Amino acid sequence: MEIKYRLLIVDDEQLERQAIKFIVDRRCPNIEIIGEADEGELACQLASKYLPDIILMDIRMPAMNGLEAVKHIRQHLPNVKVIFLTINVAIKLSQIVKA
Where are the chain's structural domains? Predict the structure, then answer.
């Protein structure tokens, strides 16, 4: 039996979320997309509800950014794996590591 990983996609750009879903649906049969969020606060709520194994998280979002969201999520899901997405090269690696 093949392991299914549960993925939560978090990005404020709908087109980006759609592109990620398209790629994952076609290329990653062992990954189940369990939800998507367009901002950090909703990501926290969905993570608590659906318990993802992996979160693809945009860093720059309105209201609660991805770094803040991950800090909250890791309080309840310390073992969740997070892959950060960003186009902002000014984000320091030390900021990401602390999340």
Answer: 5-98
CA angle (16 as vertex; 56, 67 as ends), nearest 5? 40
Contact 46, 35 (CB under 8 A): yes
Topology (CATH) of 5-98: Rossmann fold (3.40.50)
Q: How high is the mean pLDDT of the chain?
A: 89
How would you class 80 by CB atoms within 10 Å of its CB: exposed for 0-12, middle for 13-18, buried for 19 or more?
middle
**Pairwise CA distance, residues 82 & 53, whole Å:** 9
Measured CA to CA, the distance from residue 42 to residue 64 in angstroms comes to: 9
pLDDT of residue 76: 94
Q: Which pLDDT band, with edges at 50, 70 and 90, does 88 fall under?
A: low
At residue 64, the 3 state secondary structure works out as coil
